[in-house]
Design a protein that fits this description.
Elements: E1 6-8, E2 11-13, H1 18-24, E3 31-35, E4 38-42, H2 52-62
Antiparallel strand pairs: 1-2, 3-4
Length: about 80
């Protein structure tokens, strides 16, 4: 498929037909990079730490969220006044 490059404000871009986006499962975002003189668009990978909040809640509910190393103080903690 050949398409034209259009001016969009201070940038340039192309329009990707909706059926093509749907076929690839692309919605709001893409990962874009240059490979061997080609622009490559890919579905974004999972976001970093995705699902961690839900997993933490499950761990807390199961009671397995105790400290692994336990409490430990610093050498100078005895000199502190509270």
């Amino acid at each position: 498929m050949r398409t034209t490059i259009r001016k969009m404000g201070n940038s340039q871009g192309i329009l990707i037909p909706k059926p093509l986006l749907a076929q690839l499962g692309l919605e709001n975002e893409v990962d874009m990079e240059v490979e061997n003189d080609a622009i490559v668009l890919r579905r974004p990978r999972d976001k970093a730490r995705q699902g961690w909040a839900e997993a933490s809640k499950l761990i807390a509910q199961s009671g397995e969220d105790g400290l692994v190393m336990g409490e430990f103080g610093n050498d100078d903690d005895g000199e502190l006044e509270w």
